[in-house]
Amino acid sequence: MDCKSWGSRDIVFLCIIVLSLIHVSLGAKVRHFKWEVEYMYGAPDCQEHVVMGINGQFPGPTIRAKTGDTIVVDLTNKLHTEGVVIHWHGIRQLGTPWADGTASISQCAINPGETFEYRFKVDRPGTYFYHGHYGMQRSAGLYGSLIVDMADGEKEPFHYDAEFNLLLSDWWHKSVHEQEVGLSSNPFRWIGEPQSLLINGRGQYNCSLASKFSNSSISQCKFEGNEKCAPQVLKVRPNKTYRLRIASTTALASLNLAIEGHKMVVVEADGNHVQPFAVNDLDIYSGESYSVLLRTDQNPYKNYWVSIGVRGRDPKTNQALTLLSYSATPASKLPTTQPPVTPRWDDYNHSKAFTKSIYALMGSPQPPKTYDRRIILLNTQNRLNGFVKWAINNVSLVLPSTPYLGSIKFGLNNAFDQKTPPDNYDSSYDIMKPAPNQNTTQGSGVYTITLNTTVDVILQNANALAKDVSEIHPWHLHGHDFWVLGYGEGKFKNGDEKTFNLKNPPLRNTAVIFPFGWTALRFVADNPGVWAFHCHIEPHLHMGMGVIFAQGAHRVGQIPKEALACGLTGNKQN
């Protein structure tokens, strides 16, 4: 077919899109997986504890697919006493909003003994992952990697010889059930800092690969009889280019990654190509993913440290360490040098310099020049009848028993609060100080957005309950990517939009707001469904730090009856 014969430029462009979709679909496959979720014993950091696994694996199995493929996961809940769902983080679920895997939002939790079929298409290449989205099951270990390669015949805009996948997480010895009880107690009991950081589910507690460089009396790690917590060494050949796919599914920790003696070139962020730029280390927040290119051009007779450390919180958790090992050197040979030192936890200038270096690759979609609606979301820590909560515009989110997707589609108005949450907050609010009135409200209301309109969201950070404390919050949007238009200090004000980057802002699905600052996002509400937008720090979401966006839910097609077989929608599916 000759697209040029179709006439006008717009028609030619449409023709090219149609042909590309046909090309992708012709080579597409349906990839089937049968999974059983259950608790099991494991020792992620060399200390035995109960973990949540899939088919006896922790982390769960890696899904590998190609652009245009359909993923089918038959998920059976074998937890005995609690429900479960899985969210496919970064997958937009175009046309399949019920497969987003968000309990009380897109579906009912899968009851013990039941099986639910997730069926969805992966429409873009990139580095993604999946995780539990019910209670705090992500903290319990319910997560794994989801890698989408280019379709057959397509190529990435960069070259590499081989790749490694690094899924980063944090780990507590206290069970998630005990953590949840503490967060919901009066007096409040915080979960504390993680005992360990994990790389692909492996870490070391109370010992270190680099103990001789430690200021404490921590011992040298030994893995005889406990190989499952031994680090996975990255074995490389000299003078090659490797792609490192890095994703963070942490429940709390913001992280920094560095590789001794090697620069990294960032080429992908959240499944979108970016203008390549070189770094010595990178910050990664919960919910984010990156691809970096690494050139193995150093002394091949040495091994080099790969270090992961905590950022944004006063670290009480040791670095996670593994090795970059050249093929000529035994993997057992530890470097004689100190591992890279993680930048100081509160060096936010270092964090901002990295984040503000990310721009979309030339040729990427550009944002609309104007918006139809602006929503400013004030992030505050509050109290509700003595209980500590997080709130957005003074509303702490409480999820209903009936999934929003079903209740909105079928017009069940009594299933959730009908009062729309506010689009803004009181302009007299001083974000730099604790609020004079620290009380909040709670609700299950929804932001209803007109389909195919452009929405600006301003995430506004503020002082928490304690004086001079403002925390980092990574926000994740389901069902969409957004353009990150800019960051600012203090309170967002009229005129700040003049600083927005409308030329080459990066497309992301997760963005951070820094302490006492703001972040500006823009997205097009073009995906019918009901979508969560929330802080990706697990205890913060548990404490109410999120909102719900609904758009065109009445246009959603037939929803599988198993997705809505609970609450008021249980008898609406025929």
Automatic annotation (TrEMBL):
Dimer. Pathway: Cofactor degradation; L-ascorbate degradation. It comes from Gossypium raimondii. SUPFAM superfamilies: Cupredoxins. PROSITE patterns: MULTICOPPER_OXIDASE1, MULTICOPPER_OXIDASE2. This is L-ascorbate oxidase. Its main location: secreted. GO terms for molecular function: copper ion binding; L-ascorbate oxidase activity.
